[in-house]
Amino acid sequence: MQSKLILFEGIARLSDSEYQDLLARHSELTEIVQEHASIRGDDYLLKYRKLQNLYLEKMKQSLIDELSRFDVYDGLPMDEYCRLALDRWQDFCESAKDSGEVTLMECCYLQNPLTVMLARHDADQQIARQHIEKLTAVIYELNPLVIYLQPRDVTAALQHVRSERPKEWVEFVTWYLTGQEYGKAHHLSGYEGVIQFYEMRQKLETEVLHGLPIQQLVVKHSGGDWERCALEIVNFIKPFFLC
Known about the structure:
Elements: E1 12-14, H1 16-25, H2 30-35, E2 37-40, E3 43-46, H3 48-54, H4 61-68, H5 78-96, H6 111-120, H7 125-139, E4 145-151, H8 154-164, H9 167-178, H10 181-185, H11 190-210, E5 215-221, H12 226-241
Parallel strand pairs: 4-5
Antiparallel strand pairs: 1-3, 2-3
């Protein structure tokens, strides 16, 4: 899996002036901050959660809280998030097109952008759709294959996931999907609200996929027929790897 090439988990975006101010106020952290920052134009992307894990004593909670306000997923305006996401896909495309390697990704193409745009920002679905279309245009030359696993029963699929995940995960997801802009606007709450969000997102994702000029396979499943699903996937990808 190479999803980390695209994901922004635990990453803060600072401008040049914000980054220089950070170093000026925390000069003792200059070396480790520079080690975990990447620069693209005026964007300074800092892996602040990784810094926190590696240097727990040096990275005070007040600083982590400050940096979390610049978190790419949960701290920036939606337009900034979309711009950064497309930039990162563009960078990946440039590095991948001549590599000759096959890159396998999970959740980067539909799940993450649509969850951020819809759950956090309550974006208009047409705007969300346009973002995926722009993303697709960026990666089209790589001849990507999309495999979409579509549960026939969203409620049953979520119940299975809930039974396997810790309580803290369940509580966070419930808050993320029902306690932010989309949840408030649509009066979602609790487990039922989570189900409503995922049913909406699945409907939108399948509609978006069907309209994209991209090789794709939608695998409908009931959660207990994985051998049949695996065979469908193998039959789908096999022609692309046969000489």
